[in-house]
Amino acid sequence: MSDKRDKALELFDLTGRVAVVTGASSGLGAAVAETLAGLGARVAVVARRADRLTELADRVDGLAVVCDLADPVQIATVAQRVADRLGAPTILVNAAGNRFTTARAEDEPLDAVHRTLGLNLVAPFLLAQSLFPHMRDAGGGSVVNVSSISGQVGVPGIPQASYAASKAGLSGLTTELAVQWARHSIRVNTVAPGFFRSEITDSLYDSERGAEYLRRNTPLPQEGTAKDMVGAITWLAGDAARYVTGQTIVVDGGWTAR
To answer: Could you list the active site residues?
Structure first.
């Protein structure tokens, strides 16, 4: 039995691989970093908040890379900093994301639109570009973008036009990079989470009206957590999904299946 179990677990073994995880100072990014490290990867965690990042890097025996993902100049340094300290990165998880306005579409300020697209769409593209040579030279790799069901369907009562556009854009970017980079055995996929507790959604969950709205519209009875998203991301990152590329995997408790 143990031999069969070990053989099955080999599909998820990341020993010797170097992973870069953005948005790792909290929530989903931190959970992904811990899981990849637990599977044997050497993990570089990337975010702005140095104190949280350093604590996580110590916990996973990884590398803290403080970087403002709104700044293309800083983004351009990430891949080499990781390669110099940990080795060539062959896994990239773009988990950083945010929305910068709650205004209705007709009133969204241009600055908020630019900031949203910059963090949620442009930064993942730039990071993928910067890691590409390392993945190509290593003979392959995996990019996992973290999107949202907001890029798949409209969500009544929650205005987020630029956020939705940025997340839909990630799916388009994913399919294009997947096709262009397939010849290098670089897989590119997206995970589109539904609602789960995070710094962005805490106020919704903590509101009686918001919590009821989520319960009413989510077929599965459990409340979503960051850990519920980690399995799909981990699967896509490693060899268990070696023949999967160009896909957007929705993990939403059935929200979009209604």
So the answer is: 163
